[in-house]
Design goal:
Chain lengths: 274, 392
């Protein structure tokens, strides 16, 4: 049986959590509400209004919104794909081989995540202009590696380190080649870490704003930047803005909900205790 | 099946010299035990044979064929790892079948099933086949690791302490099982252990390893009765052999050894033995370390003729018998161990009287700690030759 004190603590805990949930969710709820309001009602703070789908029609059917979403998918997805192809072998090397200045290299990779994007974006802009990478898919995918690669390498490296090297030896003795060992024995073991870090990296890349804002313009238009289009110089269509935001937030939310369990486990647990 | 040879194999890890010129030859179908203390380099030898570790110098040969540059997959060896190294994502069955499913050793599924069930039966784990390694105890994991090796027909089985994590009962039955199986399969087997009972029981021959070097190679009798130095003598046998530094007195008509016990000096005559007397006379020995096994130390709680007096330091049971330690030092602590029955009423620090069966003594050089001579050397030699012949 719970004592009275414990019960009081329990109630208090939940009360605080509820307050926090309201605090955290309210802006999102308000955004969704606004997306259903007509321009005249946007500024009212009551919850009673005449819901309309006009904003959705405007944004989804009469603008290039689908294209922006597609651009976001291409750029973020491409970035994560490149990160996996480059990052998994890199993580393996950092976990298994010893070479001079290994830890420094690993730390440097991590440090790419420390620097504020705004700090590096100006030199990058000039370099991109010269190299012809400005406003191209390749350019954005490349720069997104700053966001996705360090995360992926560090998580996956931890997983590789947790796999005892004898498992690889055992597989060698069993007659498997290195590639067979890698794909048959190791990849299944790092999969939880790989999936969760890849999805997290995807969400980070999806939400990235500074890089696409400065490094792309017309040809590549990720949705984070595109939202600003609905903020005209003379008038602000808050309803449409809310629709654009809501829809662009959906993929991240759906992903997060789907893999919620794995996300926490995958990022915090070691791979295997064999 | 194959004959395995290592020739002057050297390997270092950073500044640590793991193997320092190891030369050994394992005969075809031999059960060869590598025995030594932790960190001696036993596992590294296995890894060199398996091809997991590349020696920096020296040759690894299977049937006179140099294998140094052959990768582990193509050496056809089966290995049991000390930390099991099971594949965590596969069931016990799949773990055991994995070698037979690789491209190199491809076998059809019916045959695999037959083999795996056979190995599972020997390892007493038919009921575990559907489990994942994470659902097994350490002893069970170890048996799976053994089973994974047994399903193959390799050039050589390499086993790294395969019984270390089993409970005592299972270990004993597995030990018997293993020896018999190896004889039936007619396979070469190199077995690493740090348990001297296992080494003695299993090995056709035993190689004693210390600090990356081979100290002695021989049958278990040779190593037990004629250890090449004090290190080996102390390694083989539990409780440990007693080694006492003594002075040699007398002449060729009758030698005796003299050593301090407490504040007095005890002098014990060395029984007549031509070989021992010859060696003492020819080498002009003045000082020796003499080793006497605990079972050759007799004790009495009453003063007796030919016994010398000392005090009890400890009395502890080791199962079906007990070990008495007697304090013999004064400034320098040293204890003598002897075997006694259980259930004695022995008080610590009470008086005890000891007698050595001097005709079982082994003499060592006090400087180099090397073997000099022992009683009945010819008899022991004949005995071990006989067992060697029986094995061959």
């Amino acid at each position: 049986m719970k004592t009275g004190k414990q019960r009081a603590l329990y109630v208090l805990q939940n009360f605080l959590l509820i307050i926090y949930a309201v605090f955290a969710l309210f802006p999102l709820i308000w955004m969704v509400l606004i997306s259903f309001k007509s321009d005249t009602e946007v500024f009212t703070t009551t919850f009673i209004f005449h819901p309309t789908l006009a904003n959705y029609q405007e944004v989804l059917l009469r603008s290039d919104y689908a294209r922006y979403i597609l651009d976001s998918v291409i750029v973020s997805g491409g970035a994560v794909l490149v990160s996996i192809i480059v990052g998994v072998p890199a993580a393996y090397a950092l976990a298994r081989y010893s070479f001079p200045r290994k830890e420094e290299l690993a730390f440097q990779i991590l440090s790419y995540k420390f620097a504020p994007e705004i700090l590096v974006v100006l030199p990058l802009f000039m370099i991109y202009q010269k190299m012809g990478l400005y406003d191209s898919y390749v350019g954005l995918i490349w720069v997104y590696q700053l966001i996705s690669l360090p995360l992926l390498i560090w998580v996956v490296r931890g997983y590789f380190e947790d796999i005892s090297v004898e498992i690889e030896y055992a597989a060698q003795v069993d007659g498997y080649s290195w590639y067979q060992i890698f794909f048959k024995m190791l990849v299944p073991l790092i999969k939880p870490g790989l999936v969760s870090s890849a999805l997290l990296a995807f969400i980070f890349a999806w939400n990235s704003f500074t890089f696409p804002l400065i490094l792309s313009s017309n040809k590549v238009y990720p949705v984070t930047v595109a939202i600003m289009k609905y903020l005209g110089t003379d008038s602000a269509h808050y309803g449409q803005l809310a629709v654009a935001s809501t829809v662009s937030a959906l993929p991240a939310m759906i992903f997060a909900l789907c893999i919620q369990k794995h996300l926490v486990r995958g990022l915090s647990f070691g791979a295997v205790k064999g | 099946m194959a004959r395995i040879q290592l020739e002057n194999v050297k390997k270092s890890f950073g500044k640590v010299q793991a193997l320092d010129g190891v030369t050994l030859e394992v005969k075809d179908k031999e059960f060869y035990v590598l025995f030594g203390p932790a960190g001696a380099g036993k596992t590294t030898i296995l890894n060199c044979i398996a091809g997991i570790v590349m020696p920096e110098e020296g040759m690894v040969k299977f049937d006179d064929e140099v294998m140094n540059l052959v990768d582990p997959a193509h050496r056809n060896v089966a290995m049991v790892f000390e930390n099991y190294a099971l594949y965590p994502q596969m069931t016990v069955y799949d773990n055991m079948a994995s070698a037979l499913r690789s491209k190199l050793y491809k076998t059809d599924e019916d045959k695999i099933k037959e083999k795996v069930l056979w190995a599972a039966k020997i390892m007493k784990m038919e009921n575990l086949l559907e489990r994942l390694p994470s659902q097994l105890s350490n002893g069970q994991k170890q048996r799976v690791a053994m089973g994974r090796a047994l399903v193959r027909t390799p050039n050589v089985f390499l086993m790294d302490e395969p019984l270390a994590h089993l409970d005592a009962k299972l270990r004993n039955s597995m030990r018997t099982e293993l020896k018999e199986m190896q004889a039936n399969l007619g396979s070469t087997c190199i077995y690493v252990t740090h348990d001297f009972m296992e080494a003695m029981a299993l090995g056709d021959r035993i190689a004693i390893i210390n600090e990356g070097k081979i100290v002695q190679i021989g049958t278990s009798d040779e190593i037990y009765y004629m250890p090449c130095n004090e290190f080996t003598a102390q390694l083989m046998g539990d409780p440990q052999i007693n080694i006492i530094n003594a002075e040699i007195l007398g002449d060729k008509d009758g030698y005796s050894v003299s050593f301090p016990v407490k504040r007095e000096t005890v002098t014990l005559p060395l029984p007549k033995d031509d070989r021992v007397y010859d060696v003492i006379r020819v080498d002009g020995l003045k000082q020796v370390d003499f080793g006497i096994r605990p079972q050759n130390v007799k004790y009495s709680f009453e003063p007796k003729e030919g016994y010398f007096k000392t005090t009890v330091y400890s009395y502890e049971s080791i199962g079906n018998k007990s070990v008495i330690s007697a304090e013999c030092g004064d400034f320098l602590h040293y204890q003598l161990r002897m075997i006694a029955p259980n259930g004695l009423n022995v008080e610590i620090d009470s008086d005890i009287y000891l007698r050595f069966e001097m005709d079982h003594v082994i003499l060592f050089d006090p400087e180099t700690k090397e073997y000099i001579v022992r009683y009945d050397e010819a008899g022991i030699q004949a005995l071990s030759d006989q067992t060697a012949a029986a094995n061959a």
